[in-house]
């Protein structure tokens, strides 16, 4: 599990402070990604991946970037057809050098597509993003994720959980290679709406911010071609230098909150782990047939 990441990237301005409250520097960020590379890379490799760059630290303006730019010679890219029909180059990390090469450009967060470069029309996982509204506490979010696990299990879908590194949890469902975006979208929408209809005091499946109070927003909209979610083991550009961290379901109850997992604790945690908290994720091939029989009546 401690495979050394090799890259030959020189990180310039290593002492530049990217997290002012913690004094975490650009070199610390590069060292973090080097330390977790064997765990992080499978989540972004060969996937179009947007980066969130903060060249002057998270206290200053940051920006999302999906296209390669001049100087990114260590970073692979893929040419793909956008929904509009236009062709464009997308960042698409292939190895440790790609990742550290992007850190050199100030990347802190990595947000991949749920599809690989050689099969962009076939999502290989689904993401349900559970976002707490005002007044919803961590325990409520944990209970909600467990409910998702149970209900997904009822339609033969095994799921995995991670902290987003922000406020919430992501429930992730691996798929086999011949699922379509259209089936994925049909299922996640019907599933999210069904739970929100059943338990309207607890869940909302509409994005309207002002209606969320006290409820958990089920964001299912990440499951479409071109949409992204944060990668497992990505740092977040938030106070605390938190990390999007895969957990075993059995360990979810031990977590006090997303703040447990950060740039310092995650490498230590990985060094101690005997097995992957998401054991089997990469090889599990699940179809949506059963899921669509129960959820997925054609809708708007
Ligand atoms: P939280 O737990 O705080 O909700 P999160 O990772 O679930 O964390 P955000 O970081 O708010 O949520 O990301 C929202 C979604 O929008 C993600 O799918 C992310 O990949 C995407 N995203 C974030 N910033 C941008 C941007 N500037 N442009 C396009 N997509 C973005
Ligand atoms: Mn979220």
* Distinct small-molecule ligands in the complex: adenosine-5'-triphosphate, manganese (II) ion
Question: If you compute it from the alpha carbons, what radius of gyration comes out, rounded to the nearest whole angstrom?
Answer: 19 Å
- The structure class reads alpha+beta
* CATH level-3 fold name of the largest domain: DNA primase, PRIM domain
Number of domains: 2
Number of H/I helices: 6
Shape: globular
| Pattern of helices and strands | EEHEEEEHEEHEEHEEEHH
CATH C-level name of the largest domain: Alpha Beta
In the sheet with the most strands, the strands line up as: 11-12-8-10-9-13
Helix content: 25-40%
Question: Ends: how far apart?
Answer: 46 Å
| Total DSSP E strands | 13
Instruction: Provide the CATH superfamily of the largest domain.
Output: DNA primase, PRIM domain
Beta-strand content bin: 15-25%
- What low-confidence regions span 5 or more consecutive residues with pLDDT below 50? none
